[in-house]
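question for whoever is on the cluster today: can someone run the full assembly for these? two chains, 353 residues total. i dont have access anymore since they changed the login thing
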Amino acid sequence: MSFDPALSPYLAVILIGFLPSEVWRWLSVLVAHRIDEDSEFFRFVRSVATALLVGVVLKIVATPARELAAVPIWARSGAFVFAAAAFFAFRRSVFAAILAGEALIVAGAWWWGR
Amino acid sequence: MNPEEDRRWFLAGARQAFAGPAWYVALSLMSTGALARAADMPPGAAMLATALIWAGPGQILFFGAIAAKTAPATIAFAVSLSSVRLLPMCLSVLPMLRGERSRRLTLLFASHFIAVTVWTESLRRLPEIDKARRPPFFFGFALACIGLTTLTSGLGYWLTAAVPAPLAAGLMMLSPIYFLAATARAARDGSDWLAIGAGAALAPLTQIFVGGGFDLMILALVGGGGAWLAGFYARRTAA
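^ ran it for u. tokens below:
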């Protein structure tokens, strides 16, 4: 490929961002119409996607960029423990989990970033 | 199903998105605007990337690689690799949206919106909704999420630099916490919890022993597959 992404940004987004990412969605449509939502294969895929998501999230947190890197790993993990505690304490509330985890991270980033 | 009813469910979906999820994803992807700026790209490119790629890790990788002057073919490959996870995510949502009358084109359109936010919220909300009402609800929810995020990723071009460091760290942690909490919220049975636990337990192991871009695929197949198998035998014994 001979084009300069910085000179044709919109084309770059489409050719080397959108298309290589979207093929996986297209591929799924080819298969999806044969999958029943009560089938074992559907349950299997659901489990695979769930485990995958947890892996992706932990990877982001283990190898942080910029401002988040100022917060030590144990404090980042602590934010998850705190968030999980709030989640269950408030009857599986996503909002409570976010509030609790964020409070700890913002306070930690302020403390270690002084 | 009449159009009036469809509109009601479309709006209900949008309303539920604006009650939380749309804001979480919009705020966490605001940083892509700043990444576009660092890559010498216009704010419109950040907005187009959100509307078209609609997968956080892919977008971050895309702008980061362009800023680093990586070869286009390498960027395309890396973005594609980071989006393999969209396949199982789409496969675990689309069958819930498919009705007897639904066309392939509708599913194709629906698949574009599936990334973590819409996936995890769909897993939790769609099963509780009547099958015929799922598509309008889904599209209302998804369009609200992608619309708001497209706006914020453009705004991020100017705003991100003005955010104080502690808040910036908070924004970076927002999607990890939200994604985990929403996935836990969507968990319905033991095998869902097992999959979450297995993913967490295997993450450090695969990072060390597999690596090379394939660690997540191994993690998903071993951890998720194991969780499904455990559930399968549990259902068998119970039956």
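summary bc i know u wont read the tokens: The radius of gyration of chain B is 19 Å. The mean pLDDT of chain B is 93.
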